[in-house]
Amino acid sequence: MAQPSVILATASYDHTIRFWEAESGRCYRTIQYPESNVNRLDITPNKKYLAAAGNPHIRLFDINSSGHQPIMSYDSHTNNVTAVGFQCDGNWMYSGSEDGTVKIWDLRAPGCQREYESRAAVNTVVLHPNQTELISGDQNGNIRVWDLIANSCSCELVPEEDTAVRSLTVMWDGSLVVAANNRGTCYVWRLLRGTQTMTNFEPLHKLQAHSGYILKCLLSPELCDPQRYLATASSDHTVKIWNVDGFTLEKTLIGHQRWVWDCVFSANGEYLITASSDTTARLWTLSTAEAIRVFNGHHKATVCCALNDGPEYLSS
């Protein structure tokens, strides 16, 4: 099967992962995932593999195969895996879990290569664009920076006591980081390089984005520049698009009937895919804030989505 240039996948509480044709909305492949719910999906930069974060394992699937079996399983977490992502060359993967740890996995070798203790359930992990720092947010409200070169925690902050950090996102150039919490608030910091390699957080803005939970926050990708946006997906059934210049509300995406759990920008920042408890995923065009495609097929809450429509490139 020729690989589509746009890879779009969703996962649901119905224990399936579905691959979709983005333009037609047709589901062309369904993977059964009976062991647990899938909490997060991510696609390798070369579009070859899909990682599914479950409980307590991560499974890696071959995107170009029609088989149901994972090609690899990563098994040292002991509770729900809530975050998964890849280094820019696709050589290693990172994860975070409700077992309180952040882990690094070399995709070319079995087992976990490194582990960092957060001491509370980890809800979100992002990789800094410098590829040498991971930033995690946990259930107790802690944000920690893990310096992969020094192999230690280089920075720790608590934006709001006893309020879980639900989602983190970093601007593609490393200039900003945003943390979203269970009270509908986004905290924004400028990231400043200190005299050492350590990143310093300078408070920039506090945004009361939603009245309900924010389940996902996401900054727009590089090709979207010079426009810069922040998307916030919420339990109030909406997704809001904020202009990072002043954090003014640009658009509200209305159409989902239940909680919106996840969202991902297209590579050019012109479109957004969302996943909701109403069982659907939607493709929105941000210029008009309209849903131009609804992906119907899951039977229960659709809780995560992954998209790679970036430029094709060859990778070993």
Structure description:
The protein has a domain of 117 residues: YVTN repeat-like/Quinoprotein amine dehydrogenase (Methylamine Dehydrogenase, Chain H, 7 Propeller). The strands form seven sheets. Strands 3-2-1-28 form a four-stranded antiparallel sheet, with no helix packed on it. 0% of the residues lie in helices and 52% in strands. The chain has no helices and 28 strands. By secondary structure, it is mostly beta strands. The mean pLDDT is 94. The radius of gyration is 18 Å and the shape is globular. One of its GO terms (cellular component) is endosome. It is found in: Endosome. Belongs to the WD repeat LST8 family. Component of TORC1 complex, which is an essential cell growth regulator that controls plant development. Acts by activating transcription, protein synthesis and ribosome biogenesis, and inhibiting mRNA degradation and autophagy. Its main location: other.
Write the SSE topology.
Blueprint: E1 7-12, E2 16-20, E3 27-32, E4 40-43, E5 49-53, E6 58-62, E7 72-74, E8 81-86, E9 92-97, E10 101-106, E11 112-117, E12 122-127, E13 133-138, E14 143-147, E15 152-157, E16 165-170, E17 176-181, E18 185-193, E19 199-208, E20 214-219, E21 229-234, E22 239-243, E23 248-253, E24 260-265, E25 271-276, E26 281-285, E27 290-295, E28 302-308
Antiparallel strand pairs: 1-2, 1-28, 2-3, 4-5, 5-6, 6-7, 8-9, 9-10, 10-11, 12-13, 13-14, 14-15, 16-17, 17-18, 18-19, 20-21, 21-22, 22-23, 24-25, 25-26, 26-27
